[in-house]
């Protein structure tokens, strides 16, 4: 027997993109009957608006879309709250944030859309000889994969141990390296056969990994980029990433292209492009709106950048995303 109507509110992603963007707030009835509700932005949210402002839900889920207008906002992080009030029971307050970049924010154009396994929790992405090399995460599900771009078919895979959470990957000459999140191990495999070649140990967490042609670049979720020797994994240097003079944290999956380090910033829809010498953010790529609203509800965050070093083609995807997008950066 179902109980009385009860409000359940979920926010898959609490942060806006750079150029515009929208956030989905899910309103669900955790009991029986019909539950009426209203939604309004409060607490510093003159730059945000919610629609629809009211509704009623019996079964299934209602979606409140919150949009941001950052015109006139100073660089930095801005906060507001969405308050959802039911006709019965207490209100729910959802904290939201929007980031205003001190550096230029560039949009992208989608050139092609390719299929991607929506069950893949993408943690790392690279390009090799016409195919994607992908690392996936979650305990008991982490793999290293070679994926056919045109079909999304997994051509080759090897699983990590059940107690290991896969993270970033990097193609280095004839090898591929894959990090683990908290096991402090990087696995080295033959790029063609995925046969194991070596294991490197490191301190702290592993998040993103990329190769700039001479050295490895690694992230650990902080504001640091760590440079490592590709043959020994020894640390050779590090730099703190900053934007507008402030440290930029949650650096995640990485790629190196055009002399810059490209970094997904966890829980956002944007990529920071970073000067590896100074750590300063040069500009941003805003990937808000690549997925449809329905796809956003089933997917997780943006996380995956691969650049074909020969043709310059750029590919991006995310955790549980149904597509890999081939994009170009707008001026």
Task: List its salient traits.
single chain, 331 residues, mainly beta, 2 domains, 1 helix, 54% strand
Q: What does it look like?
A:
With 331 residues, the chain is mainly beta. It has 2 domains: 7-100, Immunoglobulin-like (Sandwich), CATH 2.60.40; 105-329, YVTN repeat-like/Quinoprotein amine dehydrogenase (Methylamine Dehydrogenase, Chain H, 7 Propeller). Helices cover 2% and strands 54% of the residues. The chain has 1 helix and 31 strands. The chain has one helix spanning 293-298, and strands at 7-10, 22-29, 35-42, 48-51, 54-57, 61-68, 76-86, 92-100, 105-106, 108-115, 122-128, 131-136, 143-148, 154-159, 166-172, 175-180, 185-190, 196-201, 209-211, 216-219, 224-228, 235-240, 242-243, 246-247, 251-257, 260-265, 270-274, 281-286, 302-307, 314-318, 323-329. The strands form 8 sheets. It has a 5-stranded mixed β-sheet, with no helix packed on it. Strands 1-2-6-4 form a 4-stranded antiparallel β-sheet. A hairpin with a 4-residue loop joins strand 30 (314-318) and strand 31. The longest helix has 6 residues, at 293-298. The chain starts with 6 loop residues before the first strand and ends with a strand. 38% of the residues are buried.
């Amino acid at each position: 027997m179902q109980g009385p109507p009860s409000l359940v509110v979920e926010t898959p992603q609490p942060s806006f993109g750079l150029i515009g963007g929208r956030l989905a707030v899910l309103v669900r009835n955790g009991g029986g009957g019909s539950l009426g509700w209203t939604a309004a932005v409060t607490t510093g949210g003159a730059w945000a608006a919610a629609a629809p402002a009211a509704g009623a839900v019996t079964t299934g889920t209602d979606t409140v879309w919150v949009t941001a207008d950052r015109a006139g906002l100073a660089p930095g992080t801005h906060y507001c709250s969405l308050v959802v009030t039911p006709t019965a029971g207490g209100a729910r307050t959802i904290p939201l944030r929007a980031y205003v970049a001190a550096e230029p924010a560039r949009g992208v154009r989608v050139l092609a859309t390719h299929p991607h396994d929506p069950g893949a929790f993408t943690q790392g992405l690279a390009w090799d000889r016409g195919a994607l090399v992908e690392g996936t995460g979650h305990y008991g599900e982490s793999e290293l994969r070679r994926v056919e771009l045109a079909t999304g078919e997994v051509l080759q895979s090897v699983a990590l141990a059940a107690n290991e959470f896969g993270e970033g990957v990097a193609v280095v000459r004839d090898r591929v390296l894959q990090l683990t999140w908290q096991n402090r191990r990087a696995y080295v495999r033959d790029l063609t056969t995925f046969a194991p070649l070596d294991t490197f140990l490191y301190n702290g967490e592993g998040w993103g990994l990329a190769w700039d042609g001479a050295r490895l670049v690694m992230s650990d979720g902080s504001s640091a980029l760590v440079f490592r020797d590709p043959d020994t994994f020894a640390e050779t240097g590090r730099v703190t990433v900053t934007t507008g003079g402030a440290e930029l944290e949650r650096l995640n999956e990485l790629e190196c292209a055009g002399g810059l380090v490209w970094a997904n910033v966890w829980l956002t829809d944007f990529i920071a492009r970073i000067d590896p010498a100074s750590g300063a953010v040069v500009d941003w790529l805003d990937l808000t709106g690549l997925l449809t609203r329905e796809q956003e509800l089933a997917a997780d965050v943006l996380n995956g950048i691969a650049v074909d070093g020969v043709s310059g083609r750029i590919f991006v995807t995310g955790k549980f995303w149904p597509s890999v997008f081939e994009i170009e950066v707008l001026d």
